Amino acid sequence: MNMLRLLGLLVCALTLSACNTMEGIGKDVKKAGEKIEIAADKVK
């Protein structure tokens, strides 16, 4: 029973850390997109 609880906590911890990682990646992609858009506007 204790092993099952430990496994459950581990899964929860990994899931939460993955969410934070995906949020960070999303912010990085957004910033890159904004810079590309600014560069494209300068070319016009």
Summarize the structure.
By secondary structure, this protein is mainly α. The chain has one helix at 2-43.
Describe the structure.
This protein has 1 helix and no strands. It has a domain at 20-44. The model has no long low-confidence stretch (mean pLDDT 84). It is mainly α and 44 residues long. Helix content is 95%, strand content 0%.
What order do the helices and strands come in, and which of them pair?
Blueprint lengths: L1 H42 L1
For this entry, what is the oligomeric state of its chains?
Answer: single chain
Global outline: rod-shaped
| Radius of gyration from the alpha-carbon trace, in angstroms | 19 Å
Overall strand count: 0
Biggest sheet layout:
none
Note the gap between the termini.
Answer: 65 Å
Order of helices and strands: H
Helix content: over 70%
- List the total number of helices: 1
Report the portion of residues in β strands: under 5%
Mean pLDDT: 84
Q: Catalogue the unreliable spans.
A: none
